[in-house]
Task: inverse folding
């Protein structure tokens, strides 16, 4: 028997792929799929698969056996992919058969890490295939994420989608709200009697090519040297400064676009400004910053379900306004060492540790930002010395560990390329006089269209929010006033039947 082809997957002490039916060591189980035998730790399977966890705790005869055979519903290649993902690997799933096998295995064995991995790798090349496969096998989380991606990139994928996937899948995707670009102006708290025109949050009307009013910032909310992030489609503004003495704002504010309501939340335990903040898997992270004119390295995490801030491992060194990005569910932060060095560290929440990922040495004058697309990190900076109006960009691939210098983007005195946001295969850069959209390709960012800038002075932030199509969302109700759930259609227009364990 040969190992399934097309996968660069390694084996470790959790799993072995055998050629024959040999004896199984204690605490392990031998699983036969098609013509392949896999020897896997029981605990490993129970940690990552709801199917095996239920089987081993069922009390049935099979729960005590050290040899199992899976017939139908999962292929050897799909199982191999699942094992690799559960070990923390990033298998390159390129061939359509590999993707379908992975979705089928995720559904049959109920492997949550594999579902998350498939959601992470959705792109314009595989979106339609994963959308159909998720509908067919009833993988709801993947189905919804693929539908959202199609919704955002529909103009680019429309022709292919209409010729390859059922009409009901297209219709469902179009009922969703696309991600809209949102910009936030520079504002410090003032008395309510003053009409502060900068105290606004705007969204980009892409059809009109201009920014329009979305909501006003709360009076006591500061965006001056604050932390701004989006988590679970909610906008968070944390900290900031106010007043002549630049005192730190102790509270945080959260905007829910579905209700249009702002709420007040507690601020970090350590008051800070000029810190780095991002949202990831139910938590906000506040990294470094400045306290009383002193740079700090302390870091905190806010649990949105508990409403609590807790300290985490200090950053590798004191840092302010560091660029950050999330790629493939991994969190990366830039630490600049003047004049020419940028260390990129990854924070691993499960271990509460910082690890050095890579170091970039480039001549640069001031500041930079970082965004992610697929498994690439794009680090942008101004040119050195007198060439500061030229934006330079380097790309780091977290899978291959390779740096690539991207073609330079020349701009004029209207602003610098330092506020960028990624949606699908598009990068939007926002300046006070100009908003530009680029198409991200392997050769760099190609100009696509030009729109009006965010005409507010001072610092600005840009992010993505899914806004209701017709104002705040209200529950769907039937004729008797009862709420009605909207189900996920499969290729026949209804839910696929639940797959039963063999």
Result:
């Amino acid at each position: 028997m040969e190992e399934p082809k097309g996968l660069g997957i390694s084996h470790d002490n959790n799993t072995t792929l055998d050629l024959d039916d040999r004896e199984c060591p204690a605490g392990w189980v031998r699983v036969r799929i098609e013509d392949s035998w896999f020897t896997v730790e029981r605990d490993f399977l129970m940690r990552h698969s709801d199917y095996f966890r239920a089987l081993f705790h069922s009390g049935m005869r099979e729960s005590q056996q050290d040899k199992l055979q899976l017939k139908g519903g999962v292929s050897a290649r799909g199982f191999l992919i699942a094992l690799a993902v559960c070990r923390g690997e990033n298998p390159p799933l390129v061939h359509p058969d590999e993707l379908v096998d992975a979705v089928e295995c995720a559904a049959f064995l109920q492997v949550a890490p594999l579902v998350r991995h498939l959601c992470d790798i959705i792109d314009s090349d595989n979106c339609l295939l994963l959308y159909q496969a998720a509908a067919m096998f009833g993988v709801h989380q993947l189905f919804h994420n693929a539908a959202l991606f199609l919704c955002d990139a529909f103009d680019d994928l429309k022709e292919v989608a209409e010729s390859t996937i059922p009409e009901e899948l297209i219709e469902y995707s179009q009922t969703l709200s696309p991600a809209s670009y949102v910009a936030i102006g520079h504002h410090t708290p003032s008395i309510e009697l003053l009409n502060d025109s900068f105290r606004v949050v705007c969204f980009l009307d892409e059809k009109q090519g201009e920014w329009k009013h979305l909501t006003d910032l709360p009076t006591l909310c500061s965006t001056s040297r604050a932390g701004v992030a989006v988590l679970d489609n909610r906008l968070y503004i944390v900290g900031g400064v106010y007043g002549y003495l630049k005192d730190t704002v102790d509270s945080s504010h959260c905007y829910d676009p579905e209700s249009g309501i702002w709420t007040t939340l507690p601020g970090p335990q350590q008051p800070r400004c000029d810190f780095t903040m991002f949202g990831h898997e139910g938590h906000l992270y506040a990294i470094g910053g400045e306290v009383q004119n002193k740079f700090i390295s302390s870091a905190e995490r806010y649990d949105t379900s508990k409403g609590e801030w807790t300290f985490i491992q200090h950053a590798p060194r004191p840092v302010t306004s560091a660029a950050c990005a999330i790629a493939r569910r991994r969190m990366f932060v830039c630490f600049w060492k003047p004049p020419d060095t940028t260390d990129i560290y990854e924070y691993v929440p499960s271990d509460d540790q910082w690890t050095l990922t890579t170091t970039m040495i480039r001549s640069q004058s001031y500041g930079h930002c970082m965004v992610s697309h697929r498994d690439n990190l794009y680090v942008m900076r101004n040119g050195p010395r007198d060439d500061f109006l030229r934006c330079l960009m380097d790309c780091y691939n977290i899978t291959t560990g390779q740096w690539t210098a991207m073609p330079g983007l020349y701009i004029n005195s209207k602003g610098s390329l330092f506020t960028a946001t990624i949606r699908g295969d598009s990068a939007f850069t926002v300046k006070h006089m100009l908003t530009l959209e680029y198409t991200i390709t392997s050769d760099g960012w190609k100009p696509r269209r030009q729109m009006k800038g965010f005409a507010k002075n001072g610092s600005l932030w840009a992010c993505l929010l899914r806004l209701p199509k017709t104002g705040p969302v209200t529950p769907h109700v039937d004729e008797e006033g009862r709420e009605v759930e909207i189900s996920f259609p499969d290729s026949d227009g209804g839910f696929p039947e639940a797959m039963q364990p063999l």
